[in-house]
Amino acid sequence: MSTLSDADLDKQTVTKAYARWAPVYDLVFVAVFERGRHAAIAAAERLGGRILEVGVGTGISLPNYSKNCRLCGVDISAPMLRKAQERVTELGLSHVEGLWVMDAEHLSFPDDSFDAVVAQYVITTVPNPEATLDEFARVLKPGGEIVLVSRVGAEAGLRRSLEHWFQPAARKLGWRTEFSFERYSQWANQTPGMHLIERRSMPPFGHFSLIRFGKEGATGAGYESEPVRVAS
To answer: pLDDT class for 20, splitting at 50, 70, 90?
Structure first.
């Protein structure tokens, strides 16, 4: 796997950052990332069954899932999860099995537990992205998918320079600005049983992508493996 750079994050930085984000998270993220959020949910619902959302935050996605799905949510931030639990209670979201404070790199679920693992705007915020993806693959059932909406860094040009310049400030906010697609593709190439299904550009400004990885094995009802689709 890739060697982690000095700019990579630590758990204490991430936990503190998201505790600060909790009071304003919905205000900032609901509208800005709406299309990416709905694209991830649609991809997971196509598989159906039991879905794990990692980095569930304040639970803004939970009401958008079909009640035919069974949802589990985890997040490293207890303040975020308190808001998510309030949302589950107020809206009567009976399809939510539970919410847990949990480190994405060390999930407390058995192997092959979920039909889909969804992580929206998470991978570029965790201290060890490849180890976190390994953990997603572990808890994913054969035939299931990892569905990410995630930042993809620029490969060159002005945007690349700006990302490099802004990285120290971004780190204090709990995310990375520099994160190439090569890290995602290398992980899939080096992880037995996993393959890239799709990469699709997402707003705002195409800085993010919907990325889907499939796990080899028996497929679920209504699911057929797909050719790789890359639309950067």
So the answer is: low
Lowest mean pLDDT among 28-32, 168-172, 199-203: 168-172
Dihedral of CA atoms 56, 61, 62, 66 in degrees, nearest 10, equals: -140
Query: How far apart are alpha carbons 31 and 97 in whole angstroms?
Result: 26
Is pTM beyond 0.85 here? Answer: no
Dihedral sign computed on CA atoms, order 71, 119, 196, 130: negative
- Report how far residue 193's alpha carbon sits from residue 29's, in angstroms, rounded to the nearest whole number: 34
Task: Give the per-residue pLDDT at 10.
Answer: 61
Q: What is the DSSP string of 64-82?
A: GS-TTSEEEEEES-HHHHH
- Residue 19: phi and psi, rounded to 5, are -65, -35
C-alpha distance across the termini of the chain, in Å? 23
Residue 32 binned pLDDT confidence (cut-offs 50, 70, 90):
low
Report the candidate in 54, 47, 106, 107 with the shortest Cα–Cα distance to residue 81.
Answer: 54
Rounded distance between C-alpha atoms, residue 156 and residue 158, angstroms: 7
Residue 54 β-bridge partners: 74, 119
